[in-house]
Design a protein that fits this description.
The structure holds 2 protein chains of 2 kinds.
Chain A lengths: L1 H14 L4 H12 L3 E5 L6 H11 L4 E5 L6 H5 E6 L4 E6 L6 E5 L6 H13 L1 E4 L2 E4 L5 E6 L12 H4 L2 E5 L6 H9 L3 H4 L9 H12 L5 H14 L11 H17 L7 H16 L8 H4 L1 H6 L10
Parallel strand pairs in A: 1-8, 1-9, 2-5, 5-8
Antiparallel strand pairs in A: 3-4, 6-7
Helix pairs in contact in A: 1-3, 2-11, 9-11, 10-11, 11-12
Chain B lengths: L1 H5 L8 H16 L7 H19 L7 H22 L1 H16 L6 H18 L6 H22 L6 H24 L22 E2 L3 H6 L4 E7 L10 E7 L1 E2 L4 E2 L2 H4 L3 H8 L9 E8 L6 E2 L7 H4 L6 E3 L5 E3 L7 E8 L10 H8 L7 H13 L3 H14 L3 E2 L10 H9 L1 E2 L1 H14 L4 E8 L2 E3 L4 E5 L3 E9 L3 E5 L2 H4 L1 H6 L2 H7 L16 H22 L3 H12 L4 H29 L2 H17 L10 H11 L4 H16 L4 H24 L2
Parallel strand pairs in B: 11-12
Antiparallel strand pairs in B: 1-5, 2-6, 2-15, 3-13, 4-5, 6-10, 7-9, 8-9, 13-16, 14-15, 16-17
Classes of the chains: A alpha/beta, B alpha+beta.
Chain lengths: 309, 680
Amino acid sequence: MQSLVSAILAQVGSIVLGKPKEIRLALACLLAKGHILIEDLPGMGKTTLAQVLAKTLGLSYQRTQFTSDLLPADVIGISIFNPENKKFELHQGPIFNQVVLTDEINRASPKTQSALLEAMEEHQVSIDGTTYVLPQPFFVIATQNPLIHAGTYPLPESQLDRFMMRISLGFPDIAAEKQILKSESSHNSYKKLLPCVDTDKLIAMQSVVSQVTVADNIIEYVIALNHVSRRQDFAGRPLSPRAGQALVSAAKAWAFLEERTYVIPEDIQTVFSSVCQHRLESTSTNFGAQEENIADYVIAQVNVLKPLN
Amino acid sequence: MINQSFSPERFSLSPQNSWALLICQCLNLSLLINELSVWMLAIISLCLSGRALTLIKPTLKLHRVIILLLACAGCLAIVVTGQQLGVLLSMLHLLCFAYSLKGLELNSRKDFYQIVLLGIFILASVLVFSQSLFISFIIFCLFILNITVLLAYFCPTQNIKNPLIKSTKTVIQSIPLAIVLFIVFPRLSPFWQVPSAKSAQIGLSESVTPGDIANLARSSELAFRVKFTSDIPKYNQLYWRAMVMDEFDGRTWQQSKNSALKNKDNSTNITGEMTKLVGPQTRYQVIAEPSYQKWLFSLAVVDPKSLEANQISILPLPNYTIKSSKAISQTTSYQVTSYTATMRNYSLSDNQRLTNLHIPRGNNPRLQAQGERLNLAYPDEVQRAQAILDIIREQDFYYTLTPPLLSGHELDQFFYQTKKGFCVHYASVFTFMMRASGVPARLVAGYLGGEYNKQSGHLSIYQYDAHAWAEIWVENKGWLRVDPTAAVNPERIERGLSQELQQDGLFNNDLLNLHRYKHLAWVNTLRLQLDSLDYQWARLVLGYSSKVQYDLLTRWFGHFQAWKIAAIIGGALALMMLIMWLVNIKKSKNKPLVKWLTQYQQILAILKTKGLEKPVTMPANQFSDLVIQRFPSLTVTFIAYSQCFEALMYQALTDEKKKQRLSEMKQYQKQIKAQLKNFK
């Protein structure tokens, strides 16, 4: 199973160059059954990462470009009357795929955003009074531009909370950028990729991840981190128990990727910024120097060996 | 940089804790409500409600000027009324005022500590005013609450219940040690005298003008308790003498100067040839409540030798009362032996005779005239007294606690017109007439009777048992007690005052006063049980003087020596620590996590002395990299050690594997320690 993991990582890494940590985080998120939000400037390879992941994991996927005039029916599907057999027939939307790639999610209207986000939470959609269960495994990989960009509808806090992780890719280093510019357009390269795993294997990996041991000490560590954010004088928003759950699941997946059967504090510390940064920031302010540090600040408040002291 | 931008040191109290502190403040202060003056209560409630306002509306900030004004107002008021209040009460006012004002200025952790400490100090100061079991219990509970508020500050996100449980546990754990210290620790006399707390005296007053005792009779406060070690005399023989009033100015009876003075010659009179102590002995212990007066209670005639064994110095006076050398400002107990059948003073000095015959000229002329007529009609003094009692019995006299006001020749007016009064009126009239008829007579004030508590076998004498009676001096018989109240209201003498009081509904309006419900059997039983409990408290705890302590310790540990005391205290401390340690060992067995964690921390401590400190937020694995960089020779052992620790901390291991890992870890630990010794 670990060979599969390294194969996946190698394949994704061959297309998305110079970003091994971000790739691992994205994979960890998917193994922990979480949805992922990739946030960065245009042209940084967000969409490429999403597409390569879907392709490599061998899942059915469809990409939807979110725009301001996109309607909920465009995402989840619609019943259309068929005059031949005089019946309504369901035309499934892109959401009926295992991997749903929503590009630039913050450019769609809040109505459409919520339609998608409901499906993310419930793993099912209702059309014309009928409930349809979505395929398993079900991932939403969303990308968005930073909020300061024009023409965006920022996701409200409650919906940001649905994403287990938010990662940003950042600029590549010189070597990687050189290689990107030298190679042929990534547009074509990922189409040739073959899947490394199938659905069954992926589900098996997920169940192994869920069996990773989490010691009481680790749970206490997570609680202590949460409590730091709940102090009265804390600058950011407090972390919810769901944030704690997400943190534990993500840390389990990270431990799995690190070939361990138990979680250690490093796992928590590694995933903490990705899992909690977007839950800690208050949306009222834009990116500031303080909030870049807010996750680090929380980590710096807690004693690892005796968290609750 | 991070620390600066988030400033974790800023002081803040969660709303829950702020309210807890405020409620705690109110409760602490409420114990002193009777001692504080009205204006101080007003200022305090202003301060507290100001604090409450800021809690309800967090945006609201009291302006500095308002706080300054409040501070000035309080200080000014204390300065102005300081003279009136006396030192202790002014200090208490200042304390309470500062305590409530400080709540408006909670800016740092230091302020918070101060306010909690002040609260505990206020609780302690309540004990100056009352030391009863009930108050002590309430103070104990409030003490726990104060500690809880302090604890809650350190866990602001928790429900207040947790610190409450914790502080209760802590305080209860400390009780055994407190008891040991209470019993064993030397009872030093106070370094300074607490000034008399109450300017207003309690109970009887130094002088009696008809009308005073009616007020007293309504109070159900405890005056003193008596425990007889011999047979208890009959109710109608329990005339507790407090003071003798032999000087009459036409309106008011008071003690004449020479009888109040302790005159050595006179005091030998009691034991000398004149007064021989005869008849049955009555031995008893009196536990007097604070009266802020010097006189004490006893039955006549007291054996002066029996007073010598007491803790406080008590002087017998020639008029058969006893007096303490200091005012009774706290619950005090003393032993007395009385010989009730002893005759008092065969002879009377000329001086004394003059004092006890004196009536102002022209005062109450009708009574004077009648007295002179009686002198002619009955040559025998005892018969003369009996004649007066007959008049009172036969005529239309009426015993009441709410007599009409008297003016002018008050006794004349009472005797011939209103004919309504209580013990003081009858005793005054009787004494006056006896003097007018030429018999030395005087008024005695004190208490009559007492309530017998079957459970602990003691008598409780309440303020409503206050009584006044008369004494006449007869040749060859000495001073004879005559109680004219018996002529008008025999029941008062035989059984006490309470029944009437219930009919009159005179116990103020205090619904909680259990004396009010004496007719309900279960309430009465409850009241007596509480009384008996309170008696034991007064006897065992409040009455635990240095003499009692000395006797007790001598009985337990033989000859009294300082090192023994030190050894007992040290032993008790060691025992407590041992118990705590054992309890903790048991707890840590349930939490095996501590074992390897403590071991790991030992290594951390050693590394710290070598100049390598582990940042608390750094996980063990990362730290091992740091160690290897610094001490390359440790590479192998420390990585293995770290792995063992990590596995024990975070891996799901069976107990066997845990033991195995732990022993491995111990071995590595030894190696690391040995290797580290080489580094400097």
